[in-house]
């Protein structure tokens, strides 16, 4: 098994992150990525910058971790854009793989954004499209 340190040493530009906010959610989202149903994610733009996470960059490969901190898979960013809440659309929501439709996405994300720094109809959202390039559980695409 490849260690996280070996992966980071081989990919010094890579960020590490976890999907979700608990172990069960992390596992569920990783399963969606592995199945190919999840090829996009989003977060409030305010979480990026000098005191936050590094803004995703097209071509950069990042390591998604299991909840326990072990490497789960590597993804490569293929597109990044900034949208406002009011500009979210059905196609991007579908690429996230977790939601029935735009209304469901809004129902889930509005309280999340409100609890993590505030929500507004014109808030900026980082929208990232990615592809899985390696599965450290041995299930390569």
Automatic annotation (TrEMBL):
<dbReference type="InterPro" id="IPR009326">
    <property type="entry name" value="DUF984"/>
</dbReference>
<protein>
    <submittedName>
        <fullName>ASCH domain protein</fullName>
    </submittedName>
</protein>
<dbReference type="Pfam" id="PF04266">
    <property type="entry name" value="ASCH"/>
</dbReference>
<dbReference type="InterPro" id="IPR007374">
    <property type="entry name" value="ASCH_domain"/>
</dbReference>
<dbReference type="InterPro" id="IPR015947">
    <property type="entry name" value="PUA-like_sf"/>
</dbReference>
<feature type="domain" description="ASCH">
    <location>
        <begin position="17"/>
        <end position="134"/>
    </location>
</feature>
